[in-house]
Write a structure and sequence with these properties.
The complex is a heterodimer of chains A (410) and B (325).
Chain A: H1 6-18, H2 22-33, E1 42-47, H3 54-68, E2 72-77, H4 80-92, E3 99-103, H5 107-113, H6 131-136, E4 138-139, E5 142-143, E6 145-146, E7 149-158, H7 159-165, H8 173-183, E8 189-193, H9 199-211, H10 222-236, H11 249-257, E9 261-267, H12 271-274, E10 282-285, E11 299-301, E12 303-306, H13 313-326, H14 329-339, E13 342-343, H15 349-355, H16 360-367, E14 370-371, H17 380-395, H18 401-408
Parallel strand pairs in A: 1-2, 1-3, 8-9, 11-14
Antiparallel strand pairs in A: 3-12, 4-5, 6-12, 7-9, 7-10, 7-11, 7-13
Chain B: H1 4-17, H2 22-65, H3 72-77, H4 86-93, H5 97-127, H6 133-140, H7 142-145, H8 148-158, H9 165-172, H10 189-214, H11 218-226, H12 231-259, H13 263-268, H14 280-289, H15 294-324
Classes of the chains: A alpha/beta (410), B mainly alpha (325).
């Protein structure tokens, strides 16, 4: 082993700066990836579906849509952790692909840069997209992106455990609390919910906030406090584990799958994992509301496909054709069925539910759902973080519910 | 650069062929000097280019960025208005800055103390030759071979409060009644992150300290034992003083490496729960990539650089002293 030298030290300092200065990389990569602009027989597409089975499902879909438009798709799948910095780099070096997929939460920030073309300037039909789904791709009153499918957060209940404990599927907050108490038994918790310090904690808090009549732009309100107090009490009463602050959707899915929790509040996409276990009987319903008759309002999430400005008419036309194919009814249905998400077009509900009759609540929740960025747009990323910090501070007892939320409202 | 040498070569060839002559000899020596200078530059220039490209440019860019209102839009438009010190003011007056600074210092000191003392212990232990010692020593390098992201995922499951292996073992041994919330309690999480970082850092310490120990001549120990020195006395009077230069290197590199370490914290806790393990690098990361306030992120990382730089100066001074001594 060589003793590190001064050079190595300089390397280290260089690495420290890397966090703050990714634009440097952008400057370096600008020469490389910007080429081939005039070739309109290939279309560059970027997305973050790097895991199977989504990777192949999306890949096949893109190839099919490409061949329909008479172009070859040059696809780049970048891991989601590196995705946004890659988008920013490429926007800096003006080398964004012809079609760019984005997490709907990031759309306002990217749209604000001016890198994306408003779809009103392009020829893409939007009549296959439901209204709430259109709002996912809208910022500043302009539509920039379209999602062929969407997902949301729902409640999973373990049918056998509920039956054994003589509990029916809870519909109100009180029901949920009582059910969770009855279902807590030995090593098993009544309920698992995600409260990880990522957007996942926020994702799980929003349905409580919204169905209680609260709003993300008024976090110090009584409604917001009640919603958080409800979540905090689940942990405090011991019906949910302290570990919820570490659990993301996937961890909650594991807890539910392993029988460590009888009820799980998590992203509906966890379904695909649960379906691998034929022994597990579960039901999906909307997340309970404060009182019977209150509206179910849950956040919807998904990936929107956008058209960056490339300045090449021919390629832009081809990209429009490919995007139109991505959001066509046919693509929506096949993606929704293979990835267990909901088609963007409400007209397809009937056909979708023919294949998946047990997903009625899931589909209804999506139709009544709301986009997280619709209200705050470019301010959302900060509020998103403020909410997950408040959820964690209150659950761990670092702050009272009202302090945590008034800090978040700052 | 390579173009220079053939020219000077022919010139000296001419000088050699054209008979003696004082003038010619002088010209030859000038050209030899020039050739030497060119050769020296040829060695220096790659390093200079490297430093300018990968060291000076990022640092300067980062410095400029920290005085700009640099947002996501700035990447596309290239426009980032100068805002003076306002990013620094925002960062320093934020609720999170000082708790984060404190976490960073505790994390760094805790990790270094743990890594170094355990690393030194292991290094001294492996100095003795015994069956399988080489094999065991290479096993010790294992944490180094695992990608940090894999290691942290592993530790996350080991440290789970309800089903983690650590609590299960402690419980079976009767040491605890209820599971320790390793990563889910704000008062324990930082300690847990330090423990994991110590585990990750031990191989680095062992490897370098072991190398330093190899340089200490065995005769000294033999002489000491003839004089009746016990193991503790040998360590204090031989090992420690002779190992000092290596110790300085390990310590200072360790400090800088730990101070800027992002992946361990991101992988284990992402700075949570409730920001209890937030360090300066993670704070900078969140400011840049969650809030899109790249100016603030740059300001935070510059503060980090200044702190690291102080240690770097220390390192340069002590290493110079060690060389001259």
């Amino acid at each position: 082993m060589k003793v590190p030298t001064r050079r190595k030290l300089q390397n280290k300092i260089t690495m420290i700066t890397a966090v703050g200065s990714i634009s440097v990389l952008a400057a370096c990569s600008s020469a490389g990836s910007g080429g081939g602009q005039s070739d309109s027989t290939t279309i560059r597409v970027a997305d973050y579906y790097t895991d199977e089975p989504s990777k192949s499902i999306i890949g096949e879909m893109l190839d099919r849509c490409g061949s329909e438009a008479g172009v070859t798709i040059e696809r780049e799948a970048v891991p989601s952790g590196d995705y946004l910095s890659k988008v920013l780099q490429q926007s800096s070096s003006k080398s964004l692909p012809d079609i760019q997929m984005l997490d709907a939460q990031d759309l306002p920030a990217i749209a604000e840069t001016g890198a994306l073309a408003p779809l009103s300037e392009r020829e893409v039909s939007t009549n296959t997209i439901g209204e709430s789904v259109l709002s996912l791709g809208t910022s500043g009153g302009e539509l920039y992106g379209l999602a062929p499918t969407v997902g949301t957060i729902v409640m999973f209940t373990n049918t056998d455990m509920l039956q054994e404990a003589g509990v029916s599927v809870p519909e109100t907050w009180d029901d949920l609390k009582t059910a969770a108490e009855k279902l807590t038994d030995g090593d098993r918790y009544g309920i698992a919910i995600t409260a990880k310090n990522t957007g996942e904690a926020t994702y799980a808090y929003l349905p409580l906030l919204w169905s209680n009549g609260g709003s993300e732009d008024d976090l110090s309100s009584r409604e917001a406090q009640e919603a958080l107090q409800f979540e905090v009490d689940l942990v405090k009463d011991g019906v949910a584990s302290n570990s919820v602050v570490q659990w993301g959707n996937s961890d909650v899915g594991d807890q539910f799958l392993n029988g460590n929790a009888a009820i799980a509040i998590m992203s509906a996409t966890q379904m695909s994992k649960l379906n691998d276990d034929p022994e597990l009987n579960y039901e999906i319903t909307s997340i309970p509301v404060p009182e019977l008759g209150d509206d179910h309002v849950a956040p919807i999430g998904g990936e929107v496909w956008t058209l960056p400005r490339t300045g090449d008419d021919e390629r832009e036309n081809k990209a429009e054709e490919v995007l139109s194919c991505i959001v066509s009814n046919e693509t929506q249905l096949s993606l929704a069925e293979s990835r267990l998400v909901v088609p963007a077009n409400p007209d397809l509900d009937e056909e979708y539910l023919k294949t998946f009759p047990h997903l009625v609540s899931y589909v209804e929740t999506v139709r009544d759902g709301r986009s997280r960025t619709a209200l705050l747009e470019t301010e959302w990323p900060k509020t998103n973080q403020a909410i997950w910090e408040a959820v964690q501070s209150a659950i761990t007892g670092q702050k009272t519910v009202s302090d945590a939320l008034s800090d978040a409202a700052k | 650069m390579t173009n220079v040498s053939p020219d000077t070569m022919t010139e000296t060839d001419h000088g050699a062929q054209g008979g003696p002559g004082r003038k010619k000899r002088a010209r030859a020596s000038v050209s030899r000097e020039r050739r030497n200078a060119a050769a020296q530059w040829a060695f220096v220039v790659p390093a200079l280019i490297y430093i300018a490209l990968f060291f000076a440019y990022p640092v300067i860019k980062n410095l400029v960025m920290s005085f700009q209102d640099y947002t996501a839009s700035s990447f596309y438009t290239g426009e980032a208005p100068l805002v003076g010190f306002s990013n620094y003011v925002t960062v320093l007056s934020g609720d999170q800055f000082f708790p984060t600074l404190r976490n960073s210092l505790v994390f760094t000191v805790g990790s270094i103390v743990g890594q170094f003392s355990l690393g030194l212990l292991a290094a001294v232990f492996f100095r003795r030759r015994f069956p399988l010692s080489t094999f065991l020593r290479s096993l010790l390098l294992l944490p180094w071979l695992l990608p940090v992201i894999v290691a942290t995922a592993l530790w996350r499951s080991l440290m789970d409060q309800d089903s983690g292996a650590i609590n299960t073992v402690l419980n079976a041994l009767g040491l605890i009644d209820t599971g320790i919330p390793w990563l889910s309690s704000p008062s324990i999480a930082l300690l847990s992150v330090i423990i994991v970082n110590i585990w990750i850092g031990i191989p680095f310490n062992v490897a370098i300290l072991y190398g330093g120990l190899q340089d200490i001549p065995d005769e000294l120990y033999e002489a000491a034992s003839l004089d009746g020195a016990g193991p503790w006395r040998s360590f204090r009077s031989i090992t420690w003083p002779l190992l000092r230069p290596t110790v300085t290197v390990v310590m200072l590199l360790g400090v800088i490496y730990t101070l800027r370490s992002l992946d361990v914290v991101l992988g284990l806790t992402r700075g949570g729960p409730a920001n209890s393990t937030q360090t300066l690098p993670t704070l900078s990361y969140f400011q840049s990539f969650q809030q899109f306030e790249f100016g603030q992120g740059a300001a935070t990382s510059n503060i980090l650089i200044v702190i690291a730089f102080v240690f770097a100066l220390f390192y340069l001074r002590t290493s110079r002293r060690d060389i001259t001594a």
